[in-house]
Amino acid sequence: MTDSVHDLRARQPRFSGLEAGHRACQGCGEALGARLVTEAAGPDVILANATGCLEVFSTAWPQSAWRVPWIHSVFANAAAVASGVESALKAQGRRTKVIAQGGDGGTFDIGFQALSGMLERMHNVLYVCYDNEAYMNTGIQRSSSTPHAARTTTSPPGRERMGKRHLKKDLLSIIAAHHIPYAASASVAYPQDLRRKVRRAMEIEGPTFLLVHSPCPLGWGHDGSHTIAIARLAVQSGLFPLVELERGEVASVMPVRKAVPVADYLKGQGRFAHLFVEGDPRAREEREHLQALADYNIERYGLAGEGTDPYDTDGADTVRRGGSARI
Amino acid sequence: MRDALEGSQAIARAVGMCRPGVVAAYPITPQTHIVENISKLVADGALHCELVSVESEFSAASVVLGAAAAGSRAYTASSSQGILLMAEVVYDIAGMRLPVVMTCANRAVSAPINIWNDHQDSMAVRDSGWIQIHCTDNQQAVDTTIQAFRIAQDLDLPVMVCVDGFVLTHTLETLDMPDQETVDRYLPEPAFARRLDSANPLSMGTLVGPDYFTEIRHVQHRASCRALDVIAAADRDWQALTGRASGGLLTVDGDPDAKIGVLAMGSVVSTFREAMETLPGGKKAKLINLRTFRPFPAQALIDACAGLRHLVVVDRSLSPGLGGILATEVKAALADGPKMPKIHAVALGLGGRDVPMEAWTRLVALAKDAPEPFHILDLDPAKLDPADL
After folding, report:
1. Is B207 at the interface with chain A, CB within 8 A?
2. Quick check: A324 contacting B, CB < 8 Å?
3. Which DSSP state fits B147?
4. Smallest Cα distance from A203 to chain B, Å
5. pLDDT given at position A15
6. Residue B181's CB: how many other CB atoms inside 10 A?
7. Is A281 left (phi over 0), alpha (psi -120 to 50) or beta?
8. Which of B56, B89, B203, B204 should be substituted to probe chain A, the one whose Cβ sees the most A Cβ atoms within 10 Å?
9. CATH number of domain containing B343
10. Which of B318, B256, B316 lies closest to B288, judged by CA?
């Protein structure tokens, strides 16, 4: 007597919208992020996906890794397609929650206008950006989310350049300027925190936004087994602060009680290898620049404090300042 | 009921009677009055739908894509630059087999920027997989808009109703507006073949590699070809209900034994019909109105051209370096017929240049001469540098 795989899955205690068997790389932060998001969101959702790795590795016809309804149209329109799905559900009196998903290319750059429109029109959609800080699907080109000085194939270091010449776009501040009910950053290194933020967003009637820091082993140049460690260092160094915003105001932050030097985060990644060339004064300068950016985040969001750092949600919401997430 | 309505207002009312669940549009001249009128219907409570005032045509197309995928009747309208900004999504809507209806208020495409009427915009997306139906007057615009929702749903294909900008959209005409009951009787409940539903998960718009892509394109082509019958049937059924036909795939006016034919699309057909009746010698040629441009009704065209020695094909658009787009397609279709008339390919009325009734006489006269290479009939050489003649 054998159970079919389908039966076994149906008996799984925890629902996951993204099934195993997809074609993501080992250690893919985006695949992990999407699994955590769909676990927390549950089965009564409709996903609208931008073009990108997530779409490509999960849906090679005639197979699909999605156990929830899922739609992909083109690169730039995930937020607008989600707006349309949500409008149709509203017209039909259906209560299913719509989630839009995109990478940083589809969110910070090409899909930015559609995202702003969706937020401004107050569609009841959770938009999740899996931020791996470059165009990974086309083979690691710089995006406006790529950190300063990082190497990509279109921001290569050389005699005249030290990687990307511009700063990572502060997307969360732009999202905050839309004064939506809830926006947050999260990291795949903090799954409880990530799930909690998804659940919070799911309960809100209105637009919400989640920026999920998602390492890409191939693009960042680290072993797939180091994804979590590296994602955690991004948070612990202050370079990727985990914050929650209500109506654009900071409502809660993940404290960084004793910040890790940014160099500890950088040195594990091939994309920053040129910042550790012995005797290159530019390397030192860029490391200092990145450290200054992390220091700025720590100061701006008030991340510093006493004691030890939380590994996950423990203490994540200790700094709390009012506000209501309900419309 | 007879009403004197502006084209855009009539189209908006027709859309409203089709009870769309979601309307998304972005203003662009000369489409703007359509979306304004729909907004007013919604504001007055005469139309209950989700009206999404998007931030671009790209998002307008994306919103109706998502809405149709989620099972709602969805409508948008655009023109010119808007159609081109939508283009990526226009292809996607057709490839995903979504029954969206769009009005294209036909307008020239930049550069130079020009807000007036020709057919360059809908021609620019002619290979996208949308059904394209042209209207000769605003009665047809109303009737075709209603038929479009039925055709789209029958075939899981999007339909573009092409209406000449300004000439139709901004012109007051006396029209028979159907009543709501008639439209309700004519249109099926919006229940589509596929719908995003968390009770029955479905992945739409997935990645398709070389091993299946060809088959999917084939199926799309077959569905589009099947549209020929569906379009004709939709018009017949509408006629049975209202007494008005809109022209099926194409119509032929004038002497059936004429040896000269003129083929055109859109509002110039009405102009030429009038010219045929009133100008001296106007009845020398017959007039073929190609209502359905996609799918291309090749067999109907071959039949309509039987016995013709000359066919003048009027383009309201231009493929630089090739010439007339419509003429090229007509020639290709007729090459499969038993006896091909001589094709005279001309363009006129580009960027809103007026097409007067007298143009009919000049077009018919072309048939006296041996066919020339493609040329623009209403070109004014006096405005050209001699080097450009």
Report:
1. yes
2. no
3. H
4. 17
5. 84
6. 9
7. alpha
8. B203
9. 3.40.50.920
10. B256
CA distances from B348 to A27, B199, B264, B324, B363 (A): 61, 54, 11, 10, 10
CA distance A18 to chain B (A): 12
Which residue from A180, A199, A198, A223 is spatially nearest to A101, judged by alpha carbons?
Answer: A198
User: Angle CA(B49)–CA(B39)–CA(B87) in degrees, nearest 5?
Assistant: 85
Contact flag A85-B68 (C-beta cutoff 8 Å): no
Domain count, chain B: 2
Count of residues for chain A? Answer: 327
Picking from A7-21, A34-48, A267-281, B200-214, which range would have the lowest pLDDT averaged per residue? Answer: A7-21
Q: Is any Cβ of chain B less than 8 angstroms from the Cβ of A6?
A: no
Residue-wise DSSP of B83-95:
HHHHHHHHHHHHH
What distance in Å separates residue A66's CA from the closest CA in chain B? Answer: 7
pLDDT averaged over consecutive 10-residue blocks of chain B (389 residues)? 94 98 98 98 97 98 98 98 98 98 98 98 98 98 98 98 98 97 97 94 97 97 98 98 98 96 98 96 95 98 97 98 97 96 97 97 92 92 94
- Chain A contact for B87, CB < 8 A? no
| Cross-chain CB nearest to B207 (options A56, A86, A116) | A56
Condensed to tens digits (0 to 9), the pLDDT of residues A162-201 reads 999 999 999 999 999 999 999 999 999 999 999 999 999 9
Q: Which residue has the tokens 């139709």?
A: B168
Instruction: Report pLDDT for A319.
Output: 38
CB contact under 8 A, A84 and B24: yes
CB within 8 Å: A88 and B89? no
Domain boundaries, chain A: 16-301
Q: Answer whether B52 sits within 8 Å of A121, measured CB to CB.
A: yes
- Window B:163-182, CB contacts with A under 8 Å: none
Q: Which residue do the tokens 């920053």 mark?
A: A272
Tell me, yes or no, if B43 comes closer than 8 A to chain A by beta carbon: no
The reply to whether CATH 3.40.50.720 applies to domain A16-301 is: no
Whether B68 and chain A come into contact, CB under 8 Å, resolves to: yes
CB nearest A66 (choices: B52, B89, B201): B201
Residue B174 pairs with which residues in a beta bridge? B4
Q: Quick check: ipTM above 0.95?
A: yes
Mutate to test the interface with A, among B42, B195, B206 (most CBs of A within 10 A): B206
**Partner residue opposite B62 with nearest CB, options A62, A84, A90:** A84
Quickly list DSSP for B15-43: HHHT--SEEEE---TTTHHHHHHHHHHHH
* pLDDT at residue B1 in the model: 75
Does a structural domain hold residue B200?
A: no
* pLDDT tens digits, A50-64: 999 999 999 999 999
Angle between helices B138-155 and B210-242 (to 10 degrees): 130
* DSSP code per residue over A250-268: EEEE---SSPPPHHHHHTT
Which tens digit of pLDDT belongs to each residue from A115-151?
A: 999 999 999 999 999 999 999 999 999 999 999 999 9
Q: Is the domain of B319 the same as that of B356? A: yes
Domain span at residue B348? Answer: 250-388
Say which CATH number the domain at B222 has.
Answer: 3.40.50.970
For the entire predicted model, the pTM comes to: 0.95
